[in-house]
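Lab notes, practical 5.
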Amino acid sequence: MNFWYSHSVIAYLLLPFSFLFWLISRLRYFLFKLGISQSYRAPVPVVVVGNLSVGGNGKTPMVIWLVQHLQARGLKCGVISRGYGSQSDVYPFLVISDTDPVKGGDEPVLIAKRTGVPVCISANRQDAIELLLKIQNCDVIISDDGLQHYKLQRDIEIVVMDAKRGLGNGFVLPAGPLRETANRLQTVDLIITNGGENQYTEAVMQLVPHYAINLVSNEKRLLSEFKQGSALAGIGNPQRFFDMLQCLGIQLNQTQAFQDHQQFSAEQLSQFNVNEPLLMTEKDAVKCGQFAQQNWWYVPVDAEISGQKTTALLDKIEHIAKGK
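Output from the prediction step:
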C-alpha cells in the first residue's frame, strides 16, 4: 500500500477505522496485561522476534542469526511460527529441513534448513510449544513473529524494522502499516533496523550475500561472476532484493515482484529468459526445487548485526535460559 508511506488523502479518510482498530487492540492488550484474559507461560524462556508494521522487515534472517548465536553459547533452541501460507492437514505441525514448503510454509522450512533446529507451526502458540518440547529438550523457544500475540507470555521482545521505510506514515491499520503505535517500542528489549539506521535504531542488521547456488546442481558461484540476468522475489519487500543485486553490479534485464509467500509453478516462471541466469531469494527457492531449471540460482544472505546492545541481549537470554 503506497499510501501507507505518505500522508495522503486516502490515509486520512481511513483514520476513523484506524482509531477503531487501535481501540480494539489496546483493549485486548490490557485484558491480557491485567490477567482478565488468560495467557500461557511456557516452561522455558520465550524470545519473540516481531515488528510493529506489516510487510517484510527481515524477521526470518534475524531468527536464523539468533538461533545460530545462541547455539554457539551451548543453548538448545526451538522455533515456533504461525506458518503463514502453510497448508498442512493438521496443526501443530513439525517442520524439518526437507518438509514440503506447501505444507510447512516457506519461512519455517527455510529456518529449519539453515539452523537444523525443529520448527513447529500453529496459530495456537501454546500447542506449538508443547509439541516442540515433546520432541526436544529446548533451553529457549524463539517465536518468529507474534509480538502482538499477547496470549503467549514472553521473556524477551525484539523488534525488526526496515530502516528505510521505518514506521511509514505512523498510522495504524488500515490508514497506515502499523499494528501498534510507535509507543510500543519503548517496552521492547531491542530495536534492530534492517539496512541502515533511523531514529529508532539500537542495532543495525545488514543482509550480506556472498554467492549464488544453482537449484539443480547445487553449484556455488561468487556473485561477482554474474554480470546480468533476471530476478524474481516473493517477499515482503521485493525491491530490496533487486536493489541488492544491482548494487553488486548485476544488470537486471527483467524483474518480477510477487506477493509475499507466493506459491510458484513451472508455468508461472516460464516467462523468464532461459538463456540467462534467473536469480531468486532463498525463501523463494525452497518452493521451486521440484521444477527448477538449469539457469535458476538462489542467493542466500547472512545477517550481520552491529551494536553493543546485541551482545548484552545475548547475555541476557543466556542468563535467563540457564537460570531456569
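Observations recorded by the TA: The two ends are 44 Å apart (CA to CA). The chain has two domains: 2-75+139-206+304-323, 211-299.
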